[in-house]
Design brief:
CATH topology: Rossmann fold
Bound molecules: NADP nicotinamide-adenine-dinucleotide phosphate
Structural class: alpha/beta
CATH architecture: 3-Layer(aba) Sandwich
Number of domains: 1
Shape: globular
Strand order of the largest sheet: 3-2-1-4-5-6-7
Mean pLDDT: 97
Helix content: 40-55%
CATH superfamily: NAD(P)-binding Rossmann-like Domain
CATH class: Alpha Beta
């Protein structure tokens, strides 16, 4: 059985997830990633699964493969997420359902499956993804903000349910970061949003990595059920 630290990153193909995978690999972790499409990333310590995070059968296959391979899981980063940025009156129900399935059900499913493995190994770290859209109550993002509010609730409840297994559950809440997720948002809306932050600039990948690293540190074993927002949003 390998003693190398092993992480699972969802939504690993591009954006923040891809950056996190590269960061963890550079720090010596073994990483398994997933997303709906294939990844172009090639690395000896990286395995990519084409899996939708809301697909329970695919999740079971994926976690079984980690159990049989590395035999352990030290960290789960529930990064996969989609946004449906539109006024509520213009938002069809299938768009709402897609957002909830990916962001809420995906986070729940992967946390549950990961916790089974982490419990066997004596502990672990789960890091979820929220957004400043929750505390800012951003108009035009009702389904997205509601889905991430649910992720925050999962973070707090699972922190209690998994605490006795040595598993911490926390969340990072990024400000806008220049990825495909926000590419369709008009520039003036982004500018307006940034002006409401204590530190009015776009977020960088490194801002997120820093918070994730903090949650993953062995010294953070007493930090759980917390949501850390970036940019001075509260
Ligand atoms: N960028 C921002 O401004 C911002 C701000 C606050 C919070 N966040 C959060 O940060 C996280 C990452 O966002 P990002 O900006 O990096 O987005 P992104 O560039 O659009 O990347 C999203 C990633 O998730 C994967 N994905 C999407 N739906 C999936 C599904 N159903 N199952 C598995 N993988 C799926 C995508 O790959 P495939 O297409 O291959 O599935 C991709 O790798 C999200 O949770 C987002 O809500 C982002």
């Amino acid at each position: 059985m390998s003693e190398q630290r092993t992480a699972m990153v969802t939504g690993a193909r591009k954006g923040i997830g891809r950056h996190l995978v590269e960061h963890l690999l550079a720090s010596g972790w073994h990483v398994t990633g997933c997303s709906r499409k294939a990844s172009e990333l090639r690395h000896d310590n990286y395995t990519h699964f084409e899996a939708d995070v809301s697909d329970e059968k695919a999740a079971k296959t994926l976690f079984k493969s980690i159990r049989k391979g590395a035999g352990r899981l030290d960290a789960l980063i529930n990064n996969a997420g989609i946004a449906g940025m539109n006024h509520a009156l213009l938002t069809p129900m299938d768009a709402v359902e897609r957002v909830l399935r990916t962001n809420v059900m995906g986070t729940f499913l992967y946390s549950r499956e990961a916790a089974k493995l982490m419990k066997r190994g004596g502990g672990g770290r789960i890091v979820n993804f929220s957004t400043v859209a929750v505390p800012m109550a951003l108009e035009g993002e009702a389904a997205y903000a509601a889905s991430k509010a649910a992720v925050e609730s999962l973070t707090r409840v699972l922190a209690r349910e998994f605490g006795s297994f040595g598993i911490t559950v926390n969340a990072v809440g990024p400000t806008p970061i220049d990825t495909d997720l926000i590419r369709a948002v008009p520039e003036d809306k982004i500018r307006g949003l940034l002006s409401r932050q204590a530190l009015p600039r776009l977020g960088e990948y490194a801002d997120v990595t820093n918070v994730v690293d903090f949650f993953l540190r062995p010294e953070s074993a007493f930090v759980t059920g917390q949501v850390i927002y970036l940019g001075g949003v509260s």
